[in-house]
Amino acid sequence: MEKYVITGMSCAACQVRVEKAVNALKGVTECNVSLLTNSMTVEGNVLSSDIIKAVEDAGYQAALLDEESQKNDDEEVLKDKETPILKKRLIFSIVLSLILVYFSMGHKTFGFPLPPFLEGNYIAVGTIQMILCVIIMIINIRIYFSGFSGLSHKAPNADSLVALGSSASFVYSAFALGIMVLSYVKGSPEKNNLFYDELYFESAAVILTLINVGKMLEARIKGKTTNALKNLIKLVAKNAVIVDENGAEKEVEIDKVNVDDVFVVKADERIPVDGVIIEGSSSVDESSITGESIPVEKSEGSSVYAATLNTSGDIKCKATRVGKDTTLSQIITVVSDAAETKAPIGKLADKISGVFVPIVMCMSLFTIMAWLINGAGFGYALARGVAVLVISCPCALGLATPVAMMVGNGVGVKNGILYKNASILESTGKCDIVVLDKTGTITKGEPVVTDILLAQAIVDSESSQEENEAAEFEFVKLAGILESKSTRPLAKAIATYASSVCGDIDSGLDVEDFSVIPGSGLEGTIDGSVVRCGNFNYISKYANIPEEVTKKAYGFSIRGKTPLFYAKDNNFVGIIAVADTIKDDSAQAIEELKNMGIRVVMITGDNENTARAIAAKAGVNEVYAGVLPENKKEIVDQLMKEGKVIMVGDGIIDADSLDAADVGLAIGAGTEIAVESADIVLMRNSLLDVSGAVRLSKGVLDNIHQNLFWTFIYNAIAIPVAAGCLIAFFKITISPMFGAAVMSLSSFFVVSKALGLNIFDIRDASKDKKKLGKNARKKSSDDDDDDDMENEIIVSSLAKVEEINKTKTLSIEGMISAHCENTVKSALEAVEGVEEVNVSFENKTAVVKLNLDVSDEILKKAVEEKDYKVVEIN
Of these residues, 159, 437, 650, 768, which one is catalytic? Predict the structure, then answer.
């Protein structure tokens, strides 16, 4: 992808013209032009010289950012080169326009006095007006160059409208002044007064001045829209203090810092590059990266990041990422790239802008002709036509979307939410379903051991306390040794617990022939014995698990704990129950999403009982349990048929499902900004940022819709009024000068309103409740006992432990052979809680023996996923 700086654009029509010209080149796969930052990005296999020529042929100028500029490309693109020029031009234009208005309207309309030698000398007064007008036109010559260049390339823009209106007023006024001079020469001075009233020099000049006022205000406000990006760029350190091989400290330019260099950061200094602390401790303010205002305690081994502030003690660090690889640089790249992309709603506005200017020109010509046909003088008809040209506002139409998108992105950055492109910022607010992975998303992802249950064969009532404790010690150590070879969160919890109870579990015994059985468990050989760990179905294939143990395991699971069964040499040895706690803000975030009218779904690999217990605590009503990581994508694909889906996960294990969803959201990514599978990266590990991301997107969309509505309504009303449609009814007319002033204020209003998003509070859920108050009330009346949901599930489930239906008979259609029998049997045996299955294709039945309370829906789903139909379950 190559970046270019584009000059000469004045409105959305220019932007559309440049994009169209470059996209027409063979080899260009995508071109995005930003009117806001006057930049262009091009992807594809095409020479930069061809791209520049295409832009120039379209009537604009383009410059490729060279390697030196690329180092500071964001700074180069965001540098405000326009405002200083506009300011000088505006000051001269205002001063000269005031003098011109005094000689024209001041004298003619309000009777302001003139110097004695000019009293009654209409030709002299008119000549002075023309001279002042010409000077103002020369000062603003860029408007004419831009406007007429657009016309010559058959791509008229906003400047074309102004240039045409101003030129028409000047040419007609010059013609009228010429008639006055000719009449004087012929000895008919009485006509001078008549044609003096046909001079519109002040309109020709003041239109330019007022347009410049609008451009100046617009430029200043546009500059503020990129403040978030500018502030990030300002945080990039210029120098760093590194420690050489001799231990001496020296200050070097930031570009000179390499990976593995040791650098020093004193208190109240910003950290120059990403690194890890090798000496010292401190508190670091990471708000510039994560948006979290509370400083984070750091010590040896802790990671630190560029642009964060060391608030206390001195620290010595080793550089791990420098230059464009630092977290800050990655954030700047994401935000900058997002600013250069277009949302679908913006592309629609661009298409309208592309035809808007030609339509206005036709309407202006029609207005002039209509007034002439109606018997009006040419000067009067021309004034109405010019008013139509200058009152129309294509600029507001082109700026409504990109300004709001840029500001919205900035608000996201301040809150640790990074949208990777404008399209994602728009589509996030349109989602219907949010799918949440359980571990690390709803829960903390830091499970802990809660219960240990030894087999009765190992521990009984006759054993002494010392013997029981010794047996438990050996069991925990055995489990810890096996689990230490796995990287899954549950395994880490057990290994950590074993280390705390048994000491160094890595010494002495080792695990041979270790293997992971996906979706089932682990196995390995320890000290000559085969040790297995996993779910009930897996371990029950190798060891007999007593019924009372099964009931206790069921009790663990309905309380949100995950029971892991262990066997040694095909003998059941015990259960270790592990639980992951829900994040403090998960329930609130899920409630907020539901208040927005969003359907919330949880996916987990846990068994159904554990999953539903966690879901009840978090307030999730729809759960997919027992899902293997590779099957999450299938569920996301299925849900996408029912609406737009946001998938929330960690960006690593959930990469496929994140990539498949309409919007993939990586939560708790911290400094891993470049999560390829994610469309949105949340720097913090808080589910509230998910509801915040959706709320911000909705706020940006509302702002864009309001601005576009205002723009269309403004043009729909202003253009007919400027054309004189209300003169017959209310005697209301609009002069070209007033039209230019209103047009400038319109653009200023739209851009200012978009800038108001800077104070948008992504945590304010009150508007969600107001918007969906009716739904919230219905939910409340339908389910007054939501707060007691968890207890109800646990109580009802415990009551069923003693009443488990040992067998269920399924009537199945579609089985025609022994192969069908085996397929159905395998599908049912894979369901947790199924102990034995007997299938008969002749009787079209499957008799299932259970040792857990398995619902009919789960059994039915297992069979029908194999393309058979369950007619009845008894």
Answer: 437
